[in-house]
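Take a record.
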Amino acid sequence: MGNSGKPTVREYMTRDVSTVELDDTVETVSRRIAESDGFSGFPVTDGRHVEGFVSARDLLLAEEYEPMFRVMSEDIVVAHPDMAIQDAARVILRSGLQKLPVVDDAGHLVGIISNADVVRSQIERATPDKVDNLTQTLERIHGVDAHEERREVSLADLTPTQTTVYADELEGRKYELERGLAEPLVVIDNHGQLLLADGHHRVKAAQRAGIEEMDAYVIVLDEPVSLGMAETAAESGLERIDDIDVVDYAHHPLVETTHRLQEE
């Protein structure tokens, strides 16, 4: 959390960012976009410093030999890691951009924040208010109508959107499941594809316990849309719960934070 207590971009941004260099050619960058499943543009950097952003649209009318510094957009919208995630959400919504480069005070690239990250920030805890906020966020970002349902979902039908869970956190979720204390999952029904938006530790613990169905808040989109979290899942090879890796060599980030605070 930032000094204001509000979630910040730093907590949700992706730190491993694909970039292109100032002298990379249109031909090279176009090929990278064509061969990737999820990239429609890249930050253009000189070392670590962000100089601009190039999108597929910027490349359309350019000659293949032209370098990025000639075709990139220099007037770019960026976020700061200490920016409130809600402010970043407003910028993404109003600008119509899918992703914002995240730069520090020196203009160095430290991450990227996407509309999928903004969506994820709305669902840290599965409360009705959080589900309402997520529903409204999806409607605003994608221009669709959505409604909420409460129902049992089959774990076998879920597509995860998170690649890893933490072994120590699984123990807590197992305890909750055994005592009937587990919160409902949050699932997005995108025209029949059930995307698990929140509850990856819970489903992994449930799978280990032989549970086949779980209670869920289901956000049903009235028409199919291209969701960033679905693209991320596809890029990561996530198709079912078995594809989620259990990390047992590191603590959950919240546990790490707690340990650091106790040591101070």
User: Anything to note?
Assistant: DSSP finds eleven helices and twelve strands in the chain.
